[in-house]
């Protein structure tokens, strides 16, 4: 069956330290989201989420976009860009305005969001996005759509994502130098949550742990919004480096050893099973071998460092015991064999692996934890959430009429329409 008519097209790029990936998403006239094309390649010019070589990063971005365009059979001129570094921080701003018991109108929401925007204190950082997470009526949370309801006070919780300005400008420059315009820079935790967390998980309380090559972002969601965000300078690349150092092999060989034979879970047979350090062609001379137990020991040593840091963050935010929810692991590091079981034992929380939601046309190779952020960027672009930073200041003033003023208003309206 052929593709339906595509009414809108979105492009997304996720710029990581290990790989750079791109995806082109189409939206049909009926609203169905279809992956038209995608591609990825080894990263260049990026370290721990920061651009460190502009020319190399620009080349890699242009190359991966051309691969996605070739697969999709169409070109793109603008993209949504994922950001996992740049000193990301998160805060929640709460604002409340008096309504006086009357029915809430659309203009009241507009004024509330403008008032909320004026309360944001970036503390020298750049505001990536500021979005209404939930509304309150007379202090009670949970009003998804307050228009048409009555209240004495109308409030809103605004989730604000901040980042260091210079790294974001470098990210934009690298993309624009590849002859693309930037629709928005979106934080990786927000994009990941869009792709692999359900609304119920975000409401009940879930920790999203995105394990990249050189950086791990820990995000805690509660009551439908991101409550806390921390970056840990440890990633799956540290496992690779430890293997290369301990066994005296090259980094690319250590990466293959980790992916093919590595595991975070030990078994009784590990001491007897021998693993070749370097993959050899068939018929080649025998190479050095190590026991799987030695390999697992190095892997778990690095994973333990990571879980210690994650546990410290959970304790700081009281995300544990009866108050804690489940943990969702995603990112390329979540593809390590046995990591969910190890983390569950180390943190004492239920753990699952987060993958992109099913979308028509999504290749199997990209339906993995390592591409969750990329898929989430496309979903974020398609859903186009409200950002109060883009609301104009031209909101009309809402006037409350009462007494004689109300009578005059009714008479004036009668003369105008009758």
Task: Explain this structure.
By secondary structure, the chain is an alpha+beta fold. It is built from 11 helices and 18 strands. The strands form 5 sheets. A 5-stranded mixed beta sheet has the order 3-2-1-6-11, sandwiched between helices. A 5-stranded mixed beta sheet has the order 14-13-12-17-18, with helices on both faces. A hairpin with a 3-residue loop joins β1 and β2. The longest helix is centred in the last third of the chain and has 25 residues, at 292-316.
Radius of gyration: 25 Å
Biggest sheet layout: 5 strands, mixed
What strand line-up does the widest sheet have?
Answer: 3-2-1-6-11
Q: Which parts are unreliable, with pLDDT below 50 for 5 consecutive residues or more? A: 395-418
- The multimeric state of the shown protein is single chain
Distance between the termini: 57 Å
Give the ordered list of helices and strands. Answer: EEEEEHEEHEEEHEHHEEEHHEEHEHEHH
Which structural category fits the helices and strands?
A: alpha+beta
Query: What proportion of the residues form beta strands (DSSP E)?
Result: 25-35%
Number of strands: 18
Share of helix, binned: 25-40%
User: Count the helices. How many?
Assistant: 11
The residue-averaged pLDDT reads: 88
What would the principal axes of the Cα set say about the shape? Answer: globular
